[in-house]
Amino acid sequence: MTDITAPATKSGVRISGAFHRLLAFSGLIALVVVFSIASPNFMQTQNVLAILQATSVNGVLAIAATLVIITGGIDLSVGTLMTFCAVITGVVLTNLGMPLPIGILASILAGTFCGLISGSIIAKLKVPPFIATLGMMLILKGLSLVVSGTKPIYFNDTPGFNQIALGSAVGSIFPSVPVPNGVLILFLVAAIAAFVLSKTALGRYTFALGSNEEAVRLSGVNVDRWKIAVYATAGGICGVAGLLIASRLNSAQPALGQGYELDAIAAVVIGGTSLSGGRGTVVGTLIGALIISVLANGLRILSVAQEWQTVVTGSIIILAVYADILRRRTL
């Protein structure tokens, strides 16, 4: 009997998935080469670090979105959830004066709880993921403003908070390699997520839900429980993104967040994760997040207007989705 908890392993899927990731990686290299030729400033150390730093937040959010999209769902609330977690951290650290570890834990737990709520609405109430997470996006946007009193919360009285994203543990040992901690956290989250997807029951059921949810249900598996677990895990990852964005800004900005979900989902799609569910990799998502950051940075250096940057990004998303459609037709 075929193991329904495993992702599809037909050679056609493997080849097409690997080809999609190779295509995305080739596109990334091509962008780097083009922008390096167009502007000598592009490959300067500070600019490369700025690209990596920008990728850290979107990359973490994209990893959260990847887990959900592999199940065949969608989460439009990742951006505002990130903001809400940052605000909760501000309340715990600044308003309540709690120690830094408590604030970090509060952010991750707040994200996990909100993901749990979204997953429960989808799994138990059978509300479509698009509608459920759209509602959650608006709820969290409002709660962020209510909890913060519509004002930014600053972390000036919390020593070391800005070092979460802006410090460099590597740079303190190797001064010539000042990789920001935010980038290290991104790769740590990516490594953990990749391990979960490939080596744990949660990962196997994540792929199985996206491949054939009804078959999983008929086999006696508690589909609702695993679906809720996926959304809760994604929410916890959004809590990490909230820490990163708050650390970079040294403040929790309650009006920030809406729009981040678009870049996150774009990174997932460009990286080869199928919107129909059942297929996707964390590595592909990281490549997609880097493509978006490199593209935005390069166009900015070339003084391309913001509105045209948006047009280019949207065009790339459409091409990536069309490539996924073509890939599915060949299976």
Describe what you observe in this structure:
By secondary structure, the chain is mainly α. The chain has one domain: ABC transporter involved in vitamin B12 uptake, BtuC (Orthogonal Bundle). It has helices at residues 11-38, 45-70, 78-95, 100-124, 129-148, 163-166, 169-173, 181-199, 201-218, 223-249, 260-270, 282-301, 306-329, and strands at residues 153-154, 251-252. The chain has a two-stranded antiparallel sheet. α8 (181-199) packs across α9 (201-218). The radius of gyration is 20 Å and the shape is globular. Residues 1-15 have low confidence and may be disordered.
Characteristics:
disordered N terminus, mainly alpha, 331 residues, 1% strand, ABC transporter involved in vitamin B12 uptake, BtuC, 13 helices, two-stranded antiparallel sheet, 2 strands, 74% helix, globular
Outline the fold blueprint.
Blueprint: H1 11-38, H2 45-70, H3 78-95, H4 100-124, H5 129-148, E1 153-154, H6 163-166, H7 169-173, H8 181-199, H9 201-218, H10 223-249, E2 251-252, H11 260-270, H12 282-301, H13 306-329
Antiparallel strand pairs: 1-2
Helix pairs in contact: 1-12, 2-8, 2-9, 2-10, 2-11, 2-12, 3-4, 3-5, 3-10, 4-5, 4-10, 8-9, 9-10, 11-12, 11-13
